[in-house]
């Protein structure tokens, strides 16, 4: 199939026929509007090739409807994701005949897909050296999320790296503020990771947050890579999908891209209205994101386990034309939650903890070790409490946060 199929949930306003409402979505997003047009006549009848079609309409027990709309591939400008969104997720959200409408999923055909991740799961595992063990990656967000100067940020990174983790990242709110200029921080952190590597032998990734205006992001990313960055971070919904795409396609930017989804709750949280995580995740894969926050099953952010599992399956499923994205489970995680995350999400996952590492009673290095020990225990099938009897860092974490 060369066309794009989009799945929506919707509730028509009282008195509005469901078939009429589904067709109104199709019309608004393709060739139509609220009335017939003098500009569509015998001579311009060719525009009907872009009409699209309502493929399915099913009533649900909650009174809402599920519909699938087929958008002809020619309606899209290949590779222009902002334009894709204007079609599949545009004016329809404001249609007065609808009480609510939510884009649930898209089937994005190969002919409309972008370049995809450069590294994907295997490429990232290769850099970090976990391709044989295949354990989950352990990551941390430097905390406090903002406020530390470059020297102190680097010290936290050093201590985290000594504990043996795989990924260190900036918080989504930290970019290039005066209290922690990006290039000073990058230089200090990469130097700290080199020093840690001399002791541990292990390469750690540092996702420096290059989220900025569209006119500056590629140049900033180039400079960051020249200054030694081995991973870049982008907030996809605030910067836009084209920010990821621009970095993934830019010659000379040969490092993985860590994609944060800050602001997603405004779109994803209402189960009846907005945009589900699934289409966002598929578009991130298509745009070239190597890692993506998709939610946790036991953390603080209120994700729904079933959706996280299914979203992760979608972005990791083998496709001949797109590498898999490494899903990131994050938000309120600590060692006591690791077993639940692995049980539900498997081992091809990045388990990321900020407070759950830097809040460890014995500090960041012990916090990192505790996360890794919790992952080892889960993989061995040993309850965390039992494993903790011979692993003091894990014991201290469980004593502080529990194991549920
Ligand atoms: C978590 C954190 C991330 C959230 C985002 O810090 O900084 O921004 O994971 O949520 P902490 P999500 O580990 O201290 O809670 O990953 O669901 O998008």
Write the layout of secondary structure elements.
Blueprint: E1 4-12, H1 18-29, E2 53-59, E3 65-71, H2 81-88, E4 98-107, H3 120-128, E5 137-141, H4 150-162, E6 167-169, H5 182-200, E7 205-209, H6 217-226, E8 231-235, H7 236-239, H8 241-249, E9 257-260, H9 264-268, E10 274-275, H10 277-287, E11 291-293, H11 305-316, E12 326-330, H12 338-345, E13 350-352, H13 355-358, H14 364-380, H15 384-388, H16 392-401
Parallel strand pairs: 4-10, 5-6, 5-13, 6-7, 7-8, 8-9, 9-11, 11-12, 12-13
Antiparallel strand pairs: 1-3, 1-4, 2-3
Ribulose-1,5-diphosphate (RUB) binds at residues 141, 143, 171-172, 261, 293, 295, 300-301, 330-333, 353-356.
Which terms would index this structure?
TIM Barrel, Alpha-Beta Plaits, single chain, binds ribulose-1,5-diphosphate, 404 residues, alpha/beta, 2 domains, globular, 13 strands
Overall description:
By secondary structure, the protein is an alpha/beta fold. It contains 16 helices and 13 strands. The strands form two sheets. An eight-stranded parallel beta barrel has the order 5-6-7-8-9-11-12-13, surrounded by seven helices. The protein has a five-stranded mixed sheet with strand order 2-3-1-4-10. Helix 4 runs parallel beside helix 5, helix 8 (241-249) runs parallel beside helix 10 and helix 14 packs across helix 16 (392-401). The longest helix is centred in the middle third of the chain and has 19 residues, at 182-200. Bound molecules: ribulose-1,5-diphosphate. Residues 141, 143, 171-172, 261, 293, 295, 300-301, 330-333, 353-356 line the site of ribulose-1,5-diphosphate. The site of ribulose-1,5-diphosphate has 17 residues, from helix 13.
């Amino acid at each position: 199939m060369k066309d794009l199929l989009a799945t929506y949930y919707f509730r028509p306003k009282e008195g509005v026929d469901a078939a009429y409402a589904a067709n109104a979505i199709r019309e608004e997003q393709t060739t139509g509007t609220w009335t017939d047009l003098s500009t569509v006549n015998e001579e311009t009848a060719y525009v009907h090739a872009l009409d699209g079609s309502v493929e399915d309409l099913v009533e649900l027990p909650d009174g809402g409807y599920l519909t699938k709309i087929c958008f002809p591939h020619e309606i899209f400008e290949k590779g222009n994701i902002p334009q894709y969104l204007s079609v599949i997720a545009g004016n329809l959200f404001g249609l007065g005949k609808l009480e609510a409408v939510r884009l649930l999923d898209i089937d994005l055909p190969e002919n409309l897909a972008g370049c995809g991740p450069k590294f994907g799961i295997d490429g990232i595992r290769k850099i970090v050296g976990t391709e044989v063990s295949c354990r989950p990656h352990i990551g941390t967000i430097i905390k406090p999320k903002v406020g530390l100067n470059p020297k102190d940020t680097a010290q936290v990174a050093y201590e985290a790296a000594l504990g043996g983790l795989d990924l260190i990242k900036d918080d989504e709110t930290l970019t290039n503020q005066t209290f922690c200029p990006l290039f000073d921080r990058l230089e200090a952190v990469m130097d700290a990771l080199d020093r840690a590597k001399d002791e541990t032998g292990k390469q750690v990734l540092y996702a420096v947050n290059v989220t900025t205006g569209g006119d500056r992001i590629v140049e900033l990313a180039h400079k960051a890579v020249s200054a030694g960055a081995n991973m870049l971070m982008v907030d996809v919904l605030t910067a836009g999908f084209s920010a990821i795409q621009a970095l993934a396609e830019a010659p000379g930017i040969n490092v993985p891209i860590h994609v944060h989804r800050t602001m997603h709750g405004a779109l994803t949280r209402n189960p009846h209205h907005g945009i589900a995580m699934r289409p966002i995740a598929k578009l991130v894969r298509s745009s070239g994101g190597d890692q993506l926050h998709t939610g946790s099953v036991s953390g603080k952010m209120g994700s729904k386990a079933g959706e996280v599992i299914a979203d992760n399956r979608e972005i990791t499923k083998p496709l001949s034309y797109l590498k898999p994205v490494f899903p990131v489970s994050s938000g309120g995680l600590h060692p006591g939650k690791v077993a639940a995350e692995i049980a539900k999400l498997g081992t091809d996952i990045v388990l990321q903890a900020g407070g759950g590492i830097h809040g460890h009673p014995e500090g960041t290095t012990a916090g990192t070790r505790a996360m890794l020990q919790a992952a080892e225990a889960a993989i061995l099938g040993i309850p965390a409490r039992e494993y903790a009897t011979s692993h003091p860092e894990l014991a201290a974490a469980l004593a502080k946060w529990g194991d549920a």
